[in-house]
Automatic annotation (TrEMBL), chain B:
Entry keywords, A to Z: Membrane, mRNA transport, Nuclear pore complex, Nucleus, Protein transport, Translocation, Transport
Function: Functions as a component of the nuclear pore complex (NPC).
UniProt GO MF annotations: structural constituent of nuclear pore
Assembly with partners or alone: Component of the nuclear pore complex (NPC).
Location relative to the cell: Nucleus, Nuclear pore complex
Pfam families: Nucleopor_Nup85
Species per Swiss-Prot/TrEMBL record: Callithrix jacchus
Similarity section: Belongs to the nucleoporin Nup85 family.
Lineage of producing organism: Eukaryota, Metazoa, Chordata, Craniata, Vertebrata
Keyword Glycosyltransferase: no
UniProt name for this protein: Nuclear pore complex protein Nup85
Superkingdom of this protein's organism: Eukaryota
Length: 415, 656
């Protein structure tokens, strides 16, 4: 395992995203964008991790990523997505949604398009507006969907001045994240633990489906859809729990995986230090049986690996970044990870009382067969301090950003 | 009150004329507000328009430096790591760990210094360039002091290795020699380079004798006349006994060998071996530790601590730590030669040589413009168990006091406050109260930020702060007409009063609009419903509607009745509930039993009899009353009919 390169950048990083590669490209990722938050002045920045060929000829390799350009951003950057190769869409705490355009010729960023009051509150009596933070965006050229603390969902189209569709009061609580399920369906998660599916073909402001964990209303912060199996969805919550859902089956998650929880990690790490070997470790645990929420840390982002979806990545407020490996050839791999000097752990994998799903291709994430029921978790960052707010994976590259004002990059995820 | 250590510095605020106008001010954490008042002592008639601004004076400006932010963030990780390794280690491994931590801190300072240097070079206007350059020299001084403290207090190097460490220290900080060396060696004929002898001298002054020897061999190659002398000098350099880390020889052995070598040097000087070459002769004198010869090289030594270390190298290589201070003091005096007085840096280094840690920290606190340095150094020294005895006159010890000061500075910054939390955590006495006071003052502009602050409070069981933050968010949500959010936050805060208030708003909205909003939340309250009676009522009332909608009339009826009889429903809502009972009473089949109907009647009578008799001329009131009276009449009628049907039905059922 190659080193993860860290760079301190003098701003708290809220979002990191790889620039997508052109279709059919054989290159690896080399440019990513970051957004900052909670600074007096916030910036959208574009970074390069350098040119491969030049460095190879030197024999040496500068691990640092270099700033290409940046532009000031009004308010905290709550979410950031690449719209296409040149355009970046940001969500602001001021409720504004902005499209930035990158000019590669002179390495500058400029504002391309802006919806200034995409998200807002209306006062109880007066018609006065106050801005509401926009918390999440998802792009699918030419469409942009945004959600916010105002419980509103907007559907924008690039080059259209007004929203194409707005669902007011879509949610009574705060919407935290959004993703496309299959066009024109989207999926939102909210602060009372619900997963809602919306179909833009339907009129009215009711979701077509609501999924939730029973009872405890633990906020969900992030959501990602399996790249190949569109019914498989992963969410991360305030209690640090990773939930895998099959949106076709019932209203409950298929499996719950305890993660990012202080006590749990300590015990497992110590187990590892004692005997040095790893054995599959199964135990059933149901929501509610987890320890007090105070000890758990919110999971801020979850991402399936886009081209290798048996791998999943999560990051958390406790400053950890985890690699979840559900591929079947784990035993051989575990050795390799050990040599890399990283900490590897198995965590309990619990299954809700769902009947076995019959499908032609069973995703490893939905599998309930105990023999296959193995997930290896690797912690990717050397030491934990402040929150890891965001991560992104593309090919063998991973980037993440923290409240400790550092950006970490690795280009050899699976080596 | 202790006496002042120096005159406080005067800061002039541009644009404010304190001679003409009375000033007023107010303290904040790390900041101060200053403005002019319109109060005028003498000329009462003349009102001079005063300055319309309020100035924010920041004490700790370094916190706002982009480059230093990296220092704060990176060192935060080291600090937290240091607090965690604390307990388990003892003895040697503990010392090596502490030295490693100290080196980590220094490498962060150095990285920061290099970056600041780049920024200074790239600076567009000379003024900011100068500012950055001065920051570079401050950082460099910080690293110099830290390094010395590391050698003396953390490494606690004994006689022998002590000098080796000091030599490394000097080599690291007087590093112009490397560029000079490259310059000379890069030239066509190194030995004819104008700085050739300067270079050789510096190498000797720094004890880099191998490199000096190589230089001399170049001279020997080009000028046959001095080749012999150079060879002898080279031999002297080669044979100088030094303590190598892996060597097992004792100090006494070394001292003996060194004495022999010293005498040999002395002999060559007496013999006038080098008399024909003044450069070589001066080198020989330096190697004999001759003070006058050393002082002739003032320019090359550049400072008194270099002089000190070179002097010790060639006169007393096995100096004991305890004797350092005498050499240091005399070196300082000799070097300055009464021409100039010592500067703050000199005083700090001198205090370190005197092993007076408290003086070092005190002088640093006065001289440096930020608390980062003293806070981290003191903490590290405290972990070396060097500060145990010292208590300040105001409660906490020095380590804690400095950490609190530093952390408060971080909290005054709009973005670095997260770092401050961990520093407060490791202040056992006043850390928690400080955190409590500071954390409540963090502006919460988004829920995500609020969640981060909440987690900090929840992890530390700061229930009061958790409640207050949730309340702030609930209030905000109410103001923004986000009742669902408001209810979620008040449930999280377990704030029954606020949950009641929000529930009332929901019920009022229902009465106005005839339908519920935010069903996704209300339908999923679960046990949280028990937080307040009103919330329970809201949840149960909604449940009634759902059951009714599902046409489970019997369940709906008993639920409705229980809401009134159990006194959960507020009196003001009873009429609405009774009206809701009307369609159930009018159903074809009998839903309310006779007993239930009696209870409903009882409720209606309770409600109507409690009403005050009024006789106001208000027409609106009369109209309302009319509607109300009609409603009551209708209810009575429906109840009476239902009772009749129920009695008949129950009677006939009994007959079967």
């Amino acid at each position: 395992m190659e080193e993860i390169y860290a760079k301190f950048v003098s701003q708290k990083i809220s979002k990191t995203r790889w620039r997508p590669l052109p279709p059919g490209s054989l290159q690896t990722a080399e440019t990513f964008a970051t957004g900052s938050w909670d600074n007096e002045e916030n910036y959208v920045s574009l970074w390069s991790i350098g040119d491969f060929e030049n460095l190879d000829s030197d024999g040496g390799f500068e691990g640092d990523h270099q700033l290409l350009c940046d532009i000031r951003h009004h308010g905290d950057i709550m979410d950031l997505q690449f719209f296409d190769q040149e355009r970046i869409v940001t969500a602001s705490s001021t409720g504004c949604v902005t499209v930035f355009l990158h000019h590669p010729n002179n390495q500058t960023l400029s504002v391309n398009q802006q919806w200034t009051t995409a998200h807002y509150h209306t006062g109880p009596s007066s018609p006065s507006y106050s801005s509401a933070p926009c918390t999440g965006i998802v792009c699918n050229n030419p469409e942009i969907v945004t959600v916010g603390e105002d419980g509103r969902i907007n559907l924008f189209r690039a080059d259209h001045k007004e929203a194409v569709r707005t669902i007011d009061n879509a949610d009574s609580s705060t919407l935290h994240a959004v993703t496309f399920l299959r066009t024109p369906e989207i999926l939102t998660v909210n602060s009372i633990g619900q997963l809602k599916i919306w179909d833009f073909r339907q009129q009215g402001n009711e979701p077509s489906q609501i999924l939730s964990l029973t009872g405890d209303r633990v906020p969900l912060h992030c959501v990602d859809r399996h790249p190949n199996q569109q019914h498989v969805v992963a969410t991360g919550g305030q209690d640090g729990m990773l939930s895998i859902w099959d949106v076709r089956q019932g209203t409950m998650p298929v499996s719950l995986l305890k993660a990012h929880e202080a006590e749990n990690r300590v015990s497992l790490l110590s187990m590892l230090e004692c005997n040095g070997t790893i054995s599959a470790h199964h135990s059933l645990s149901f929501p509610g049986s987890s320890s007090s929420p105070a000890s758990a840390s919110p999971m801020w982002e979850v991402h399936f690996h886009p081209s290798n979806p048996d791998h999943l990545f999560t990051c958390s407020e406790d400053g950890s970044l985890w690699h979840w490996d559900a591929s079947t050839d784990v035993p051989e791999k575990s050795l390799l990870f050990h040599q890399g000097g990283r900490t590897s752990t198995f965590l309990s994998h619990s299954i809700s009382n769902q009947a076995n799903v019959h499908q032609s291709v069973i995703s490893s994430w939905l599998s309930t067969d105990p023999a296959k029921d193995r997930i290896e978790i690797t912690s990717l960052l050397p030491s934990r301090t402040l929150s890891v707010n965001s991560l992104d994976v593309l090919g063998p590259c991973l980037v993440c950003g923290t409240d400790a004002e550092a950006i970490y990059v690795t280009r050899h995820l699976f080596s | 009150m202790e006496e002042l250590d120096g005159e406080p510095t005067v800061t002039l605020i541009p644009g404010v004329n304190s001679k003409k106008h009375q000033m007023c001010f107010d303290w904040g954490p790390g900041e101060m507000l200053v403005c002019e008042t319109s109060f005028n002592k003498k000329e009462k008639s003349e009102v001079v328009p005063s300055c319309p601004f309020i100035y924010i004076i920041r004490k700790d400006v370094d916190v706002y430096s982009q480059v230093l932010r990296k220092l704060f963030n990176e060192s935060h990780g080291i600090f937290v790591g240091l607090q965690r390794i604390e307990e388990e280690l003892t003895g040697k491994s503990r010392k090596s760990q502490l030295v490693r931590v100290s080196k980590n801190y220094r490498s962060v300072i150095r990285a920061c210094m290099e970056e600041m240097h780049q920024v200074a070079i790239a600076a567009k206007d000379p003024a900011s360039g100068r500012q950055f350059s001065s920051q570079v020299s401050i950082l460099s001084a910080m690293e110099l002091i830290w390094n010395l403290c590391e050698i003396l207090f953390i490494e606690v190097a004994p006689a022998g290795p002590l000098l080796l460490h000091l030599l490394d220290w000097v080599r690291l900080h007087v590093c112009e020699v490397d560029s000079l060396s490259a310059d000379v060696l890069g030239s066509e004929n190194p030995s004819k380079h104008e700085s050739f002898w300067n270079l050789v001298t510096i190498l000797v002054l720094q004890g880099r004798l191998d490199e000096a020897r190589q230089m001399l061999s170049k001279e020997a190659d080009t000028s046959p006349t001095s080749a012999g002398m150079c060879r002898i000098m080279g031999e002297l350099m080669r044979t100088m006994p030094i303590l190598s880390p892996g060597n097992t020889q004792t100090l006494t052995e070394l001292e003996l060998k060194w004495q022999h070598w010293h005498e040999e040097c002395e002999r060559y000087l007496q013999d006038c071996t080098f008399a024909s070459n003044p450069h070589l002769e001066s080198l020989c004198k330096i190697m004999l530790g001759d003070e006058a010869a050393l002082l002739e090289q003032k320019e090359l030594l550049s400072n008194w601590y270099h002089f000190l270390v070179t002097r010790l190298l060639y006169s007393n290589p096995t100096v004991k730590p305890i004797d350092l201070q005498y050499y240091a003091q005399s070196s300082l005096d000799l070097f300055l030669g009464g021409e100039s007085s010592p500067e703050p840096l000199d005083n700090i280094l001198m205090a370190a040589f005197e092993f007076d840690i408290h003086q070092v920290i005190k002088e640093c606190s006065i001289a440096l413009s930020n608390w980062w340095f003293v806070a981290h150094l003191t903490d590290l020294l405290d972990h070396c168990k060097l500060l145990q005895s010292h208590n300040l006159y105001f409660g906490s010890n020095m380590r804690e006091c400095l950490l609190l000061e530093y952390a408060s500075g971080l909290f005054a910054h709009p973005s670095l406050w997260q770092l401050g939390v961990d520093y407060f955590d490791y202040c056992p006495e006043l850390g928690r109260v400080s955190l409590e006071l500071h954390i409540e003052r963090i502006p919460l502009n988004t829920e995500q930020k609020a969640l981060k602050v909440l987690r900090i409070c929840e992890q530390r069981q700061m229930t009061e702060q958790v409640r207050s933050i949730c309340k702030i968010l609930a209030m905000k949500a109410v103001r923004n007409n986000r009742l669902g959010s408001a209810l979620s936050w008040s449930i999280r805060a377990k704030d029954a009063a606020f949950a009641t208030l929000v529930s009332d708003r929901f019920l009022r909205d229902y009465c106005e609009r005839g339908c519920f909003s935010d069903l996704d939340l209300i339908d999923n309250l679960g046990p949280a419903m028990m937080l307040s009676d009103r919330l329970t009522f809201l949840g149960k009332y909604r449940e009634f509607h759902r059951v009714y909608g599902e046409k489970r009339f019997a369940d709906a009826a008993s639920l409705l009745l229980s809401l009134m009889t159990s006194q959960i429903a507020p009196r003001s809502f009873w009429m609405t509930l009774l009206t809701d009972a009307l369609p159930l009473l009018e159903q074809k089949q009998v839903i309310f039993s006779a007993e239930q109907t009696y209870e409903l009647m009882q409720c209606l009578e309770d409600l109507t009899s409690g009403r005050p008799v009024h006789g106001g001329p208000d027409t609106q009131q009369c109209q309302d009353d009319d509607i109300e009276t009609t409603k009551v009449e209708m209810l009575r009628l429906a109840l009476a009919r239902n009772l009749a049907r129920a009695i008949v039905r129950e009677g006939s059922l009994e007959g079967f």
